[in-house]
Amino acid sequence: DSGVTQTPKHLITATGQRVTLRCSPRSGDLSVYWYQQSLDQGLQFLIQYYNGEERAKGNILERFSAQQFPDLHSELNLSSLELGDSALYFCASSVSLAGVETQYFGPGTRLLVL
Amino acid sequence: AQSVTQLGSHVSVSEGALVLLRCNYSSSVPPYLFWYVQYPNQGLQLLLKYTSAATLVKGINGFEAEFKKSETSFHLTKPSAHMSDAAEYFCAVGGLFGNEKLTFGTGTRLTIIP
Questions:
Q1: Which chain A residues have a beta carbon less than 8 Å from that of B36?
Q2: Distance from CA of A109 to the nearest CA of B (A)
């Protein structure tokens, strides 16, 4: 158990809909990262937040947005869903160990868009 | 830009045999390198990381990896494979301070033959 929690575990929805994925980082971790894992794209970085502020952006679609709240949990919002958005979405939080930030991953949310 | 290449999307070894999973990196700055393992229907678990402190890095479950700058490689090995090692393995490279996004390889699925 990494200490990172994600809800829900599974999500089935229809095209055009909007969903929210939630992530609670390990206690004390200030950074939260979101990744998407799909068969055709592999594991891709979406976005990073640090202590409530957006720090880095990756291959995140404009239909997707995220935020980190004062209690450090984060939410990833996916809107106008398309079939191709079906994937496993991971959240990770990081801690500095021996001067190196190390990311610990949650169990993921499996999204199926029908 | 940083990248990693994992040679061999599928590797099969007999139980008790040597496991060797290959990873080559590309980075314009000293890299931070990671190996993660993903068991079926689970999240990513950190196996080990290279932080420039030592070129031979020991991880969990008997795995280790050696950083070779001249070969730009960070191959993962285990002397004797166990059935429980069957999983997908991902090599990843982090940023200058290790706190930026991780760039993952395409993964290697390891099958253990009884």
A1: 105
A2: 9
Q: Distance from first CA to last CA of chain B, Å, rounded?
A: 41
Instruction: Write out pLDDT tens, residues A35-80.
Output: 999 988 899 999 999 999 998 888 899 999 999 999 999 999 999 9
**pLDDT tens, chain B, 114 aa long:** 788 999 999 999 999 999 999 999 987 777 889 999 999 888 899 999 888 778 899 999 999 999 999 999 999 999 999 999 999 999 998 865 545 678 899 999 999 999
Using a CB–CB cut-off of 8 Å, the residues of B that contact A are: 32, 34, 36, 42-46, 49, 51, 53, 90, 94, 97-104, 106-107
Q: What is the 3-state secondary structure (H, E, C) of chain A?
A: CCCCEEECCEEEECCCCCEEEEEECCCCCCEEEEEEEECCCEEEEEEEEECCEEEEECCCCCCEEEEECCCCCEEEEECCCCHHHCEEEEEEEEEEECCEEEEEECCCEEEEEC
Q: Do A105 and B44 touch (CB under 8 A)?
A: yes
Indicate yes or no: CB of B46 within 8 angstroms of CB of A102: yes
Q: Which of B99, B104, B106, B108 to mutate to probe the A interface, most A CBs <10 Å?
A: B99
- In chain A, the residue whose alpha carbon lies closest to the alpha carbon of B90 is A43
- Is the pLDDT at A8 greater than 60, yes or no? yes
Question: What are the tokens at B95?
Answer: 């940023």
Give the count of beta carbons closer than 10 Å to the beta carbon of residue B106: 16
